[in-house]
Amino acid sequence: MPRSSVQAPSSVAMIRPHHFTPNTLTARDNHFQTDGGADASSVARTALDEVTRAAEALKNAGVRVHLFEDEGTATPDSVFPNNWFSTHSGGHVAIYPMYAPNRRAERRQDVLEMLKHTYRVQDIIDYSGLEQDDLFLEGTGAMVIDHLERVAYAARSKRTSEILLERFCTHFNYEPVVFDAVDAQGQPIYHTNVLMCIGTDFAMVGLSALPDTVRRRDVAERLRRGERDIVDLTHAQIANFAGNAIELQGRDGLILALSSRALRSLEPAQIKTLERHVSLLPLDIPTIEHAGGSVRCMIAGLHLSARSPQNA
């Protein structure tokens, strides 16, 4: 039997955008965003194709993919659903407050109805009303969750309220671990999942992005408590989205979904370490990455029990 892990969901939700474009409102603090360099219609078509191919690659690897369509023009970041909701073992779902006003329309009732119909959902905790109080916590972008050790790692930013993080951790029974993180230019990193990926037996983390050396050591030691191999990422690898990956349960075992660009940035020794634990599944999404996110941002992992046998 292929090995499984509570850290690695076997089902995911994705959004296929029909009018994709980098979000001008999020460019203010997302320094990973770049200009697509092409006309809007060409960018949108290419992005749709990239999501379609990525979803097919995941399905072919044995991951169950729930693919939703976004045909509107008011939600440029809809391709990144992991920011507005997350799911947790025991049937728990969280809905999050979003920093950019035009991201708040990404929350979709049809996605939540699918979760309730297909999986055993016990409760839904909705934090989105706290947008009125300027409190934000953008899901598993703001937090990187260790489901095995029950830890929520979070880099401080405009999109991560420590008050709301504490509230989330109390509700969902996680230990919060908060730190500052900056890019190579000393700018705060907008989302934690850009610099950190936690798998069952490994963690990819840009420790050099944590300027406080004491906190850097503390985070590394906390990650190692789970007896994980640490793959330390450089600033250049973070900029190439090497940290923005996700471990999933495939048909033949654990896989690591990451972008082709991210894989190219890794050193042979780092790849060898990862391949001791997972099969690597590179996805080619260069257009999506212009929006400042990569594979992890595109995938909302479903840590829920199915109501009926999966027919992935």
Question: What is the gist of this entry?
Answer:
With 312 residues, the chain is of the alpha/beta class.
Task: Kindly describe this structure.
It contains 10 helices and 15 strands. By secondary structure, it is of the alpha/beta class. It has a 3-stranded mixed β-sheet. It has a 3-stranded mixed β-sheet with strand order 3-4-5, with no helix packed on it. A 3-stranded mixed β-sheet has the order 6-7-8, sandwiched between helices. α1 links the parallel β1 and β2. The chain is globular. One of its GO terms (molecular function) is transferase activity.
Which descriptors apply to this entry?
312 residues; Amdntrnsf_FN0238; three-stranded mixed sheet; L-arginine/glycine Amidinotransferase, Chain A; alpha/beta; globular; single chain; Amidinotransferase; transferase
Question: What are the SSEs and their pairings?
Answer:
Blueprint (H helix, E strand, L loop, with lengths): L10 E7 L22 H21 L3 E7 L14 E4 L3 E4 L13 H10 L4 E4 L12 H4 E4 L4 E5 L6 H11 L2 E5 L16 E3 L3 E4 L7 H12 L4 E4 L2 H5 L6 E5 L2 E7 H6 L2 H8 L3 E5 L2 H4 L5 H4 L1 E2 L11
Parallel strand pairs: 1-2, 4-5, 7-8, 10-11, 13-14
Antiparallel strand pairs: 1-15, 3-4, 6-7, 9-10, 12-13
